[in-house]
Amino acid sequence: MITIVPISEDFGRWDELLALILSSFAYMDEVIDPPSSAHRLTLASLAQKAREEIGFAAVEDGKLVGCVFCKIEPSSLYVGKLAIAPSHQRKGLGRRLLAVAEEIARKNGLSALRLETRIELTGNHLAFSKWGFEKTAENSHPGYDRVTSIEMRKRLA
User: Does the predicted TM-score (pTM) go above 0.85?
Assistant: First the structure.
C-alpha cells in the first residue's frame, strides 16, 4: 500500500529523495537540452525546497517511490519535481500526487495547477493532456534561441 506523506523540514530522508528524483529523471539525460535542473539539486537545496514549497512523498513499505513539490503563485499552484520511481511509473501514482496538488490548490483558493515540461518530452505532454492540462505557453531557457519548454495549466472546477 502506498501512502502520501508531507515532506517537512525535518523529513530527514534527503539522500533517498535526491536518488528518487535523479532516477526518475534519468531517461531525460540523452533527450533534453539544456540538462535537467534535477542535476543541480543537493541535499541542502532539497531541504531548502521543503521550507519554501509544499512537498509530498509517496512511500511504499518504507521506500520512497514518488514525490511532488508545489509552490503557491498568485493565480495557480505550480507543480514541480513530480518524480515517480521507474518501477512505479504508469500505475496511477502521478495522478494520485497531482490529486494532492489539486487539494492544496483548492484549500488556498487557487483555480488552476501550472507546470512546465521540456519540449522534447512529448510523452509527458500527452500524459498531462490526458490528466486535463492544456498547453498555454512556450518558453526558452536563458541562452537558447529556440523553445525549450512548454507551460501547461489545468483549470480546477
Answer: yes
